[in-house]
Design goal:
Elements: H1 2-7, H2 19-26, H3 30-40, H4 50-71, H5 78-87
């Protein structure tokens, strides 16, 4: 987000968060804000399928989020991986 704002000369104030705080904030719509900023400076596509693109991006996030949770879990196990492959990935 910082790179986008710097590239397009959008003023902002930087806030440093702890890891725990960042996880909560990240879940509260960081991607939506970034998508909005990108569109506000013309970085979106000019097509009739923009809603479809958003739907695909959201679907990828639905797959990626549980994968990241497993990947960084200190108690990661093969059982967790197998559960992810059986329950989440086959969407």
């Amino acid at each position: 987000m910082r790179l986008l704002m710097n590239d397009w000369n959008i003023s902002y104030s930087e806030t440093t968060f702890s890891n725990k705080m960042w996880l909560n904030i990240k879940q509260e719509g960081l991607k939506i804000i970034l998508r909005y900023l990108g569109r506000s400076v013309g970085l979106d596509c000019e097509c009739d399928e923009l809603d479809y693109c958003d739907m695909i991006a959201a679907g990828i996030e639905d797959i990626k989020k549980p994968l990241s949770k497993n990947r960084y879990d200190p108690n990661f196990s093969i059982t967790m991986r197998d559960e992810y492959l059986k329950s989440t990935l086959p969407m």
